[in-house]
Amino acid sequence: MELTHFTQQTFRTLMTCMSRPGTKEALQKDAMIDGIYAETMSVLRTMLDGEVTFAVVGQAPRLQQEVMAWTGANVSEVADADFILVPQHTDEAQIVEAIQQAKIGDLVDPQYSATLIVEVVAETSQQWQLTGPGIQDNTIIPLAITPNIVAARAARNKEFPLGVDMIFVNEHGEVVALPRTTKAEGVEQ
Fold first, then answer.
1. Residues 6 or more apart from 143 whose CB is under 8 A from it?
2. Residue from 148, 33, 175 nearest 91 by CA
3. Domain ranges of the chain
4. At what angle do helices 3-19 and 38-47 cross, to 10 degrees?
5. Average pLDDT across the chain, whole number
6. Residue 98 is inside which H or E element, if any?
7. What is the Cα–Cα distance from 171 to 27, expressed in whole angstroms?
8. pLDDT at 29
9. pLDDT at 1 over 70
10. Which value, in Å, is the radius of gyration of the alpha carbons in the chain?
11. For 69-126, how does the pLDDT look when each residue is reduced to its tens digit (9 = 90+)?
12. Which 3 state secondary structure label does DSSP give 182?
């Protein structure tokens, strides 16, 4: 498939997930690079270009160089990045710290906030109840993130319209998005 059509299709998939939080959609595979899922690369090639910055959480200079080569985006520190990539095997403490450092925009320009692209595993017993715009009443989804990550996200998103958006990609190429307007609460099992 031609790159333009590929990225347009990926963008539509991401917008469906953002407008309907908790909706799980399938991504197509893109370039394979060591350290991230091929579907994560689909998201990166769609969202990143020479006008934006990105950071990779953890020590991954080779991964940064490859993402920069494929997308043309500029490497930045986490606190200044437009997009923050969190590879699957990233430590929970590093993820929480990245969320705490991520830019949230300001009241004049809330769009100057960060989007975190987080790789997760598909199999999980952790259930989250989501509420907010785009969700009728509530929806419950399985998502392999910890209560500490959800709490850090909630703290950054407490002053709407400020906050961070999060896109989760699993190893099966499924994507789920949690925009800043979505509230997530753990479900007792």
1. 120, 124, 126, 127, 128, 168, 176
2. 148
3. 3-174
4. 90
5. 93
6. helix 92-101
7. 11
8. 87
9. no
10. 15
11. 999 999 999 999 999 999 999 999 999 999 999 999 999 999 999 999 999 999 888 9
12. coil
pTM of the full structure = 0.94
14-42 pLDDT, tens per residue? 999 999 999 999 999 877 888 899 999 99
Tokens found for residue 118: 């987080």
Question: How far is the C-alpha of 64 from the C-alpha of 75, rounded, in Å?
Answer: 7
Q: Write down the residue that tokens 């991230």 correspond to.
A: 36
Distance CA 143, CA 184 (A): 11
The listed CATH number (3.40.50.360, 3.40.50.300, 3.40.50.11310, 1.20.1440.230) that belongs to domain 3-174: 3.40.50.11310
User: What is the rounded CA–CA span in Å between residue 26 and residue 39?
Assistant: 9
Give all strands (DSSP E) within 40-189, no chain letters: 53-56, 74-75, 83-86, 115-120, 127-131, 139-142, 165-170, 174-178, 183-186
